[in-house]
Design goal:
The protein has 50 helices and five strands. It is mainly α and 1042 residues long. Helix content is 59%, strand content 5%. β3 (102-114) and β4 form a beta hairpin. Among the domains are: 71-196 and 210-222, no CATH class; 866-1040, no CATH class. The protein is elongated, with a radius of gyration of 48 Å. The chain crosses the membrane at residues 7-29. It comes from Drosophila erecta (Fruit fly). This is Kinesin-associated protein 3. One of its GO terms (cellular component) is axon cytoplasm. InterPro entries: ARM-like, ARM-type_fold, KAP3.
Length: 1042
């Protein structure tokens, strides 16, 4: 047994040692092989050192405006260096020793240029090679500028530049993805470029011509100036509201015109340029701007306090001297403003305040130039003959200032060809030489002054670049003399020329305004900064800028105004500046984004009633109606029209447009379950106008609206139909739908929908309808009693149910049905629970009035219910409408019942003389309190129990049994009215003013007096007026005459 265990142990030990032995052998073999490889590598390195390499012509292409990051290739051993196909051999012979082991290659992307003759791209890049002896021991470094030509053989007139650009970027490792827009722009340029190369040139000359053209293109591109901001901002046709670093024409210019090599490492050199002459300051600011447009450089620039201080100082001191300089520096800070984290930096250097000063100055300068140009256009050179001399002097001064401004700020588009105007070599046909020269001073000589080269003024070394060239006083005098001659032809030419120059100047000025406004818009994210802008009249500046023509500027200004318009003070200031008169011009623009932003601004302003009236007067309504059928502007246009439909006077103006038909058809043709909320709200408002309602139901539209309302049980659509049913001329068309409306009441679960259905039935007070049959056939009486249970349903449903009962109670059979079914009892219980709701109280007593008007139900109301007592109580209510209906009902009760007539008469007398009673109250002697108390007990025994106890305590004074002792009873009643809550002097009824204004019909009052069974002796004691609205005071006087 022991032998077996020993054998097993030896076997296991052998298996464990076997891998160790194998690994050790492998290590020895690998070490030997490594020594052999190192020897061979050393030999090849020595051979490489002895063999010279040809030099390569060094090219220095311009960097791209957005240089891609440097990419690095893996480490390559020296023996593989000669196999590299990425770049030509090194420029110089590498001198190294035997310790050189490997080489590291890196390439840095550069600019991309279009080929001058072929349909190809020229990619510039820089190759860096470093030879290492050890991993951290570089021995030799070499850099080399290279080019690669990518020929676009598939490019033709039908090629998609965007798709081809993506394909080129994917396949070429030298082009970074950030340069995709540049490649696309170059391909677009190559696609549309006319091929100037001649096919007749022999092949041996083609290569030389292309090489020369390429060299010339490179020379021009490296020498271009950075003074113009046209390559940094998008032009007027680039579309809506892009940021300062946006694409569009900006990218096209920056791609087709590569700028000089700009690096963050040379920032100190660019800052030094800010301390030079104006031309150098513009160039330095343009280079810093190019770096700021790359977001990766912003944090580095933020740390450079010297750069930011120099920029803010130059802007503060020299912003009046050059538009280019101001635009470049403001653009730099705008790049910072696009990120909230850099806003404190802008506040620190007070750039926002400077921007507002620049904007205010430029707007005033442009306005002054426009006014001066208008003065020139006048026939006699002045507005009035009285001020002719003053206007002439002002015109002369403005001409000099205008010439100085145009010479100082003239953009590149105004540069004439680099040639002199030849002197006249021939005498004119008529006149003398001096007169001819005088006439030419206003055209040719002044044209030469206006069109002097902006490039030359920047590059002049003898004087500051911002200073305009000196204009001789003699030329100005000659110019003014020629204008004074009022030569129509010369004057017309001069005005046309100045007008053209002003337009070009305004176009350049708008670039500055756009960048400055954009910076302020970004800073307005802070509410405190926005308030500071408001105090410095930013709204006034923005409203002035609405007169410009630049689409991008108008979009930016409209967006800024839209943001500011949500503040009441800003909105009021916009109204005072008559912004409403300036916006219709923007509606007519073909730029949809501008129209959309303008409509949003108008929507914010339309919340103000005064501004809405100005909009109507300015003719906004027809323009807004045109946008209903526009899918993009439909939503916002309907919202504005809804606001305008809030005014009753404006509702009738909609009939002069097609808005009513279009809106109604849009609801009917809508395929969705729910109709657009704004659209249905607009129609609901318009339906309150009778003429609009008639238009809505024309052409079987009522049938379509009813079908859709019942199909989807749309409460808002039923509300629209309810408004239509309010018009008496349209009520006959609803008769066919009465059955459907009554049937839906008991089967629908949506209370909002039921409310609108009840509203329609309540509006249909038609003699042709048999209301009792409707109530019985659809079993509505039990449903109505359930609704009238207090606190069981929503108040709106209860209120419309009571309104419907009032409509039905006009029919005598329905009134009898209500009495038999104890609906009146339910109404009295509801009246007790809802005494603070004026609307419900008013509608309940209106139902009482309708029932009391019928002789068959009048006795039931008086003898079987407590309604008379509650009506007497409500006679003192503060709501005028409730008092009117109560007086009418009490008059009917007094005619029908003599006993109630006495009590009603006494209560009205007490109410009418309440002030006198209060005065008597204040004069009573406190010593007789016990006697008054005894008299109060006697008064309590003389009244019936029909009235409330609080009310009965105050009626003893007026009982007929106490007529002989009226003075004593008066003292008794006045003594206790002070402590009685039912006293009119102490009335605490505080219900709000009712919104119900339904007039009462009292025409049949005299008929009731002749047919009442309970008149008795009261017929000779009461005189009533028969009129539409009962006068309570007059009725009191008539009752007291008895």
């Amino acid at each position: 047994m022991q032998f077996v265990l020993l054998l097993i142990f030896q076997i296991i030990s052998g298996l464990v040692l076997l891998p160790i032995v194998i690994h050790y052998v492998y290590y020895i073999i690998n070490a030997i092989a490594g020594d052999l490889c190192e020897q061979k590598r050393a030999q090849r390195e020595q051979q490489l050192q002895r063999s010279p390499t040809p030099r390569h012509q060094n090219r220095h292409p311009a960097q791209s405006p957005h240089p891609p990051p440097t990419e690095e290739e893996p480490v390559v051993f020296i023996n593989n260096l000669t196999n590299s196909s990425r770049s030509p051999p090194a420029a110089t012979t590498m001198q190294t020793n035997d310790d050189a082991k490997f080489i590291k290659k890196r390439w840095k992307g550069g600019s991309i240029e279009p080929h001058p003759t072929d349909k190809a791209l020229i990619v510039n890049y820089q190759l860096e090679a470093t030879v290492f002896g050890e991993p951290n021991n570089p021995m030799i470094e070499e850099k080399k500028h290279c080019q690669k030509i990518i020929r676009l053989r598939s490019l033709n007139a039908k090629t998609d530049p965007a798709a081809l650009a993506r394909e080129v970027v994917e396949k070429c490792d030298l082009i970074h993805k950030s340069q995709l827009n540049d490649v696309e722009q170059i391909i677009f340029y190559l696609k549309n470029r006319k091929d100037n190369a001649s096919n007749d040139i022999p092949d041996n000359n083609t290569h030389s011509r292309r090489s020369a053209a390429l060299h010339t293109s490179h020379t021009r591109s490296s020498a271009r100036s950075h003074s113009s901001v046209a390559a940094m901002t998008s032009s007027t046709g680039s579309g809506g509201g892009s940021t300062g670093t946006s694409n569009g024409v900006s990218n096209a210019l920056s791609t087709a015109t590569p700028t000089a090599d700009v690096s963050i490492n040379n920032i100190d050199e660019y800052v030094e340029l800010l301390y030079e002459e104006l031309g150098e300051r513009i160039r330095g600011s343009a280079m810093i701007l190019q770096m700021a447009r790359n977001p990766d450089n912003l944090e580095e620039l933020e740390k450079n306090e010297a750069c930011l201080s120099a920029l803010s100082r130059v802007l503060r001191e020299d912003w009046r001297k050059s538009l280019d300089l101001s635009t470049n520096i403001i653009y730099i800070f705008f790049c910072f403003s696009t990120y909230t984290k850099f806003h404190p930096l802008i506040v620190q250097y007070k750039i926002g305040s400077l921007c507002m000063d620049v904007i205010d100055y430029e707007l005033r300068r442009y306005e002054t130039m426009r006014n001066e140009l208008d003065v020139r256009k006048q026939p006699n050179g002045s507005s009035t003959p009285h001020s002719a001399k003053a206007s002439k002097e002002k015109l002369n001064r403005s001409t000099d200032d205008f010439l100085d401004i145009m010479n100082e700020e003239k953009p590149k588009e105004m540069e004439p060809p680099r040639r002199r105007i030849p002197e006249l070599k021939q005498r004119p046909k008529s006149g003398n030489w001096s007169s001819f020269h005088g006439s030419m001073s206003s055209s040719l000589i002044k044209s030469q002054i206006l069109n002097s080269s902006y490039h030359e003024s920047l590059c002049a070394g003898g004087s500051p670049a911002g200073d305009p060239p000196a204009v001789p006083a003699e030329l100005k005098a000659q110019s003014n003399e020629s204008l004074d001659r009022n030569d129509p032809k010369v004057k017309k030419e001069e005005i046309d020329r100045l007008n053209k120059q002003l337009k070009i100047f305004a176009k350049k000025q708008e670039q500055l305004l756009r960048v400055a406004f954009y910076l302020l818009l970004n800073m307005a994210e802070n509410v405190k900064l926005e308030e500071k802008m408001r105090r410095k009249h930013i709204v006034k500046m923005l409203v002035k800028a609405l007169d410009r023509q630049n689409i991008d500027l108008l979009m930016l200004v409209s967006t800024f105004l839209k943001k500011l318009s949500i503040v009441g003070d800003n909105k009021d200031e916009m109204g005072a500046l008559n912004i409403v008169a300036k916006l219709p011009r923007l509606f007519q623009s073909t730029h949809t984004d501008l129209v959309q932003v303008t409509l949003k601004l108008v929507f914010n302003l339309s919340f103000d009633g005064g501004l809405r009236r100005k909009m109507i007067a300015a003719g906004y309504l027809p323009m807004l109606v045109m946008f209903i059928n526009d899918e993009k502007h439909h939503g916002i246009a309907v919202k504005i029209l809804y606001h305008m439909s809030l005014d009753d006077k404006v509702k009738g103006m909609f009939t002069q447009t097609e808005c009513v038909q279009m809106a109604t058809d849009a609801i009917i043709l809508n395929l969705n379950v729910k109709v657009d909320l704004d659209l249905i709200a607009l129609c609901i408002n318009l339906s309150l106008n009778r003429r609009n309602a008639q238009i809505m139901v024309e052409g079987q539209r009522l049938h379509s609206l009813m079908d859709r309302a019942f199909k989807y049980q749309d409460a808002l659509l039923m509300k629209l139909l309810r408004n239509l049913s309010q018009h008496e001329s349209l009520q006959q068309q609803f008769i066919d739908y009465v059955g459907d409306l009554a049937r839906i009441l008991t089967i629908c679960d949506d209370e909002a929908f039921i409310v609108e259905c009840l509203g329609i039935l309540g509006n249909l007070a038609l003699t042709d309808l048999d209301y009792s049959q409707i109530l019985q056939n659809f079993q509505l009486i039990p449903w109505i009693r359930q609704i009238l249970v207090p606190c069981s349903r929503m108040d709106d449903l209860v209120l419309d149910t009571i309104v419907y009962l009032g409509t039905c109670a006009c029919d005598e059979l329905c009134a009898l049905l209500f009495c038999r079914a104890k609906v009146v009892i339910s109404l009295i219980e509801l009246l007790k629970a809802k005494q603070e709701d004026d609307e419900i109280v008013l509608q309940i007593i209106f139902v009482f009035q309708q029932i009391l008007r019928h002789e068959s139900t009048r006795e039931y109301m008086i003898k079987e219910t407590e309604s008379p007592a509650y009506l007497i109580d409500l006679m003192h209510d503060k709501n005028e409408e409730i008092r009117k209906v109560c007086d009418y009902c009490l008059d009917i009760i007094a005619i029908s019942d003599s006993e109630w007539a006495k009590r009603i008469k006494l209560e009205k007398f007490r109410n009418h003389n309440s002030q006198w009673l209060c005065m008597v109250e204040s004069q009573q002697d406190q010593d007789n309190e016990q006697d008054y108390a005894d008299q109060e007990d006697e008064c309590d025994n003389d009244l019936d129990t029909y009235l409330r106890s609080e009310y009965l305590d105050n009626c003893d004074l007026y009982n007929d049994n106490a007529d002989n002792d009226s003075n004593s009873n008066s003292n008794c009643n006045s003594n206790h009215s002070n402590n009685n809550p039912a006293s009119p002097a102490m009335s605490t009824y505080s219900r709000p003013l009712s919104t119900y204004r339904r007039s009462q019909d009292l025409d049949d009052l005299y008929n009731m007096t002749s047919s009442s069974k309970s008149q008795g002796s009261s017929d000779n004691n009461f005189i009533f007026k028969s009129n539409k609205s009962l006068d309570a005071d007059g009725l009191h006087e008539e009752l007291l005459m008895a």
